[in-house]
Amino acid sequence: MKKVIVIFALFACVAIVFAQQQQQQGQQQQVQPQRPPSWNPASTEWYYPAPPKVQPGRTIGQPPSDAIILFDGTNLDKWESSRAVTERGQRPESAPWKIVDGEMRIVPGSGGIQTKEYFGDCQLHIEFKSPPAENYHGQNRGNSGIFLQNTYEVQVLDGDNNPTYVNGMVGSIYKQSAPLVDPYTKNGEWQVYDIYWKAPVFNGAGELVSPALITVVLNGVLIQNNYILKGHTPYTGLPVYTPHGRLPLSLQDHGTEVAFRNIWIRHL
Known about the structure:
Blueprint: H1 2-31, E1 68-71, E2 79-81, E3 98-100, E4 103-105, E5 113-115, E6 122-129, E7 144-148, E8 152-156, E9 191-198, E10 201-202, E11 208-210, E12 213-218, E13 221-228, E14 250-251, E15 259-267
Antiparallel strand pairs: 1-15, 2-5, 3-4, 4-15, 5-14, 6-9, 6-15, 7-8, 7-14, 9-12, 10-11, 12-13
């Protein structure tokens, strides 16, 4: 009887060991990496539609062939007054700013201007020059603003030894985001903005689907890197989103004779 028990126990041990070996082999087979499928390189290539051909500007800052020229130093035909039309059916007033030596200059107190054309996603190039500092300082020196879709402000300000709150300095997304660095040069010198704008998207119920996104380059230096806006850019209060579609680009009259030149824009 003892022999039978010993033999039975031996068989049981062998069975357990065999089962463990089978389990280990199964686990090893499961963790073996699968070989990638054999791809033909052509299966991940496409040739149509081809991007349209665009001729770049001959020099840095000059408009490419598909740009809309908003100001070339000769006239204000692309612009109109930003002042609200009070009577139904009344046409907006002409842009009240002046042209001096090929520059578009703010006439302080005349109000802002806006484009006649409406824009959404866009690439904008614009150059500005601060007027003499005189006795002005902070937000009162060389102040203007570039408003994407009439709503979201990139600050224009004299940044030459002119301290102010950093989310309102030149290159800021006004009251939301200070610039990463300060590449402003000198008062009286032309400053160059290149702005890349992704407009906010709203659904049919007026709900925000995706927020606005902006990248800003000043004088060839990246100062806003894909910043996600929290809403509009108010002087007082917190930013909020209000549903809208395409809207004009506008420039602010803040009481100083800031000059602009070489303004062009591309739909994206």
